[in-house]
Design a protein that fits this description.
It is a single chain. This protein is of the alpha/beta class and about 750 residues long. Among the domains are: about 1-145, Rossmann fold; about 410-545, D-amino Acid Aminotransferase, Chain A, domain 1 (2-Layer Sandwich); about 560-650, no CATH class. Helix content is about 45%, strand content about 10%. The strands form 5 sheets. Strands 3-2-1-4-6-5 form a 6-stranded parallel beta sheet. Strands 10, 11, 12, 13, 14 and 15 form a 6-stranded mixed beta sheet that branches. Helix 3 (about 65-75) links the parallel strand 2 and strand 3. It starts with a helix and ends with a helix.
Length: about 750
């Protein structure tokens, strides 16, 4: 049979550049049932090289098995070619072994998934002949539906298998019979049944044993954080030992859960091993307080020395990250957030006054999940800018939260209040959102854009409608919380082309009177998980996904790039004698103080403060009349200047900072792994084509305004590396001091250039 298939492949591809065909069967396989095994064997009968591709991700309750465990189960069917991959639907770990020009990739899916994926530019239907290598695209092959039943639990699926074999009420005889019906044998019986029974036993036992909110409330009243040891609580060993009974009865119960969550596999890979030549390593900092030689970077002191409250904040944020990684989100899901309420108001810290003013100015920007660039946040200090530069180049943007991809789709905000509601702007949010009919009306007659929004509203309504009311309330709070999301419909792509239709959740924001007032920590990921848990993540037109986490690698030339960017920033700071403690708002303020002095002359401080507020910060509370400015000549001069648009000057002041951070973004983004685009090289080529086409169209059009705008954007693009700076993504999103920021590199000028011919 295999020889016959091989001969057919050779005849079919005789005139083709394709010499090999690799068939891939991707999936979670939690666990692989006999119906999966039959699908693989069907695939193997058609292609010589056939693999099972699956990840090592363990995520309760739907993905309890580690890769090692899944491999053992798959092997029991006589299937040896099972490979661990980061993304089963890309399978880079398999394909990288083959020549991308002469090797075609065929992915096998069920009919529903196969039909959904062919809507993009990367995947196409397999028609029996390979014409392109996997670098250019891949093929989709729909497998025949193999229907098998789990007696008493419905058609065989991962959910049905886990439910049946995790049922502790079944006796061993009954369960063995069901097991054999599922797998065709009794191999790995203990491995699978113990795992699935434990899934409910451990977690349910923990939940019933302890009052989670009460336990967390008790801990939150103390001054200690998650990784404090015995010396943080007890004065000596004797008092510690007396506490042993409590530890045994309470803490060990929690450790059972954490042990189950983490399994036997390592879940952090720090790549800190020293090689034979003593290269590699060292580990990152073990403390945010001064270590080693003061003022020097040595030993484990990989960051600048920190002291006091600053050091504590850094340590506390890292501790929170570690806690979240090993299961605190699970505890929070159980209702721990109920224990975190307090009536105490947080103290507010006023911004520093300007160098010439004794009154502080209103600062805003960078709050609660709004994805602004660092230079958009006037409340950041220049010390903050330097810290962001440093951690970006070190690949340490995950100190507070793992960085995610900023995708380039159609943006939409959604909530749930007696049904799905959507918003495209602040006005929509303030009035509680609009329904599907209003969205359909808004985009009527706009071709693929209309389809993208209508299909998205239909799929979102079904998916979110599938989760229970308690879960909806947890995420949406009766319509007060809004999900910031992206619609990625290949046919309506913007700058970056994606290969499959996805609805991606970015974050969840709390709103009051149309303005963001807070964020739901991890809300986007939790909502995506809820939908996936009820098998509603794959809808008719879209797949629903959470934030796409990225791996940011350290810059290979960190020792040169850090002083390069810091020197640039110091040069900008020196213009107005700014120190690391000065805010970006004070920089703007200093410019406008100088502007007022040059253009208006010597006026009293009240007038100077009022004019700077109007022109630098768009605060019109200072009225321009004889009551505020008695001198008629000065008043006339002020009114004439006031008629001018000052936004342009603000942009001009920001331009050098903009270029600096765009250039930084270029350096960081080229060291990133995990972009959503299935074929990054092809995505970059497409973007370059779009840019070249837009440049040609604008120049031929002869519109002087457009040509001038084009020149400005090309200047920005060329200053940060030109076409070589392009990556297959809009950029990344990271959290710094609790606020959300983005690094976009070349995307901003590219978006402006391509937008000239489309909008």
């Amino acid at each position: 049979m295999n020889l016959g298939n091989w001969l057919v492949e050779q005849i079919v591809n005789e005139d083709s550049k394709i010499k090999n065909i690799v068939a891939i069967y991707p999936g979670r396989f939690q666990p692989m049932g006999a119906h999966h095994a039959k699908t693989y064997k069907w695939l193997k009968s058609k292609f010589k090289d056939a693999y099972v591709a699956t990840s090592g991700k363990v995520e309760l309750p739907k993905s309890p098995f580690s890769f090692a465990e899944k491999k053992k189960i798959v092997n029991s069917y006589g299937i040896s070619k099972v490979i661990q991959v980061k993304s089963p639907y890309k399978a880079d770990e398999i394909l990288k072994k083959y020549d991308p020009e002469t090797t075609a990739a065929v992915f096998v899916f069920g009919e529903k998934d196969a039909g959904r994926l062919t809507g993009g530019k990367f995947f196409s239907q397999w028609k029996g002949k390979a014409e392109i290598g996997y670098r250019e695209g891949a093929y989709i092959l729909a497998a025949p539906h193999i229907s098998m039943n789990v007696p008493g639990y419905g058609e065989m699926s991962g959910t049905a298998i886990r439910k049946a074999l995790g049922d502790k009420d079944l006796d061993k005889k009954q369960k063995t019979k069901i097991f054999k019906g599922i797998f065709g044998h009794t191999k790995n019986y203990d491995l699978i049944t113990n795992k699935l029974e434990k899934l409910s036993e451990v977690i349910e036992g923990f939940c019933h044993y302890l009052d989670i909110p009460d336990l967390l409330k008790e801990n939150l009243t103390g001054a200690h954080t998650v990784d404090d040891g015995p010396r943080g609580y007890w004065g000596n060993q004797k008092s510690w030992k007396k506490f042993g009974s409590y530890i045994q009865a309470h803490i060990n119960k929690g450790m059972e859960v954490l042990n189950y969550l983490t399994g036997t596999e390592e879940f952090f890979d720090h790549k800190t091993e020293f090689k034979a030549d003593m290269s590699g390593g060292p580990t990152g900092a073990v403390s945010y307080f001064p270590v080693g030689v003061p003022g020097a970077i040595a030993g484990t002191n990989r960051l600048a020395d920190k002291k006091g409250r600053d050091a504590f904040k850094r340590w506390a944020s890292w501790s929170k990250y570690i806690a979240t990684s090993v299961g605190y989100e699970f505890v929070n899901y159980l209702g721990a957030e109920l224990s975190a309420t307090t009536n105490k108001k947080e103290p507010t810290k006023s911004p520093k006054p300007g160098t010439l003013m004794k009154e502080s100015l209103l600062l805003e920007g960078g709050a609660y999940g709004h994805m602004s660039h660092p230079f958009d946040d006037r409340g950041l200090t220049f010390g903050d800018f330097k810290q962001i530069i440093d951690i970006s180049l070190q690949g340490k943007l995950d100190l507070e939260q793992a960085p995610t991809e900023k995708t380039d789709g159609q943006n939409l905000f959604i909530t749930w209040n007696k049904g799905l509601k959507a918003a495209r702007n602040g006005g929509d949010i303030k009035k509680g959102g609009v329904d599907s009919k209003a969205i359909a009306s808004k985009f009527a007659g706009r071709g693929n854009i209309e389809k993208a929004f209508n299909y998205a509203m239909n799929d979102l309504s079904k998916a979110i409608g599938s989760i229970n009311d308690k879960q909806k309330e947890k995420i949406f709070d009766g319509g007060n919380n809004w999900v910031n999301m992206e619609i990625m419909w290949p046919a309506s792509s913007n700058v970056v082309s994606y290969d499959a239709p996805n609805l991606q959740f970015h974050n969840v924001l709390q709103y009051k009177d149309g303005s963001a007032v807070g964020a739901v920590n991890g809300g986007a990921r939790v909502l995506a998980g809820m939908i996936k848990q009820v098998d509603a993540n794959v809808q008719k037109n879209f797949s629903i996904i959470g934030p796409q986490f990225l791996k940011v690698n350290p810059h290979q030339d960190y020792s040169a790039k850090k002083p390069y960017f810091i020197t640039k920033l110091n040069t900008l700071m020196s213009k107005y004698n700014m120190s690391d403690s000065n805010t970006f708002a004070e920089y703007h303020q200093a410019y406008w103080e100088e502007f007022v002095s040059k253009k208006i002359g010597n006026v009293n401080n009240t007038i100077k403060i009022g004019l700077v507020k109007r022109w630098a910060f768009s605060d019109k509370s200072f009225r321009l009349n004889k009551k505020t400015i008695a001198d008629e000549k000065i008043l006339e001069k002020v009114i004439n200047i006031d008629k001018q648009k000052h936004e342009g000057q603000v942009k001009k002041n920001m331009l050098p900072f903009e270029k600096l951070f765009f250039e930084l973004g270029v350096e960081v983004l080229k060291n990133v792994e995990g972009y959503l685009a299935a074929n990054p090289d092809k995505a970059v080529q497409n973007i370059r084509k779009q840019v070249k086409s837009a440049i040609s169209v604008v120049r031929k059009g002869g519109d002087i305004k457009k040509i001038n705008r084009l020149s400005q954007q090309l200047s920005k693009l060329n200053s940060i590396g030109g076409m070589k700076a392009i990556v297959p993504s809009e950029g990344l999103v990271f959290v710094y001091k609790g606020k959300t920021y983005k690094l976009t590199g070349a995307f901003a000028p590219i978006n402006q250039i391509t937008g000239m011919i489309y909008f």
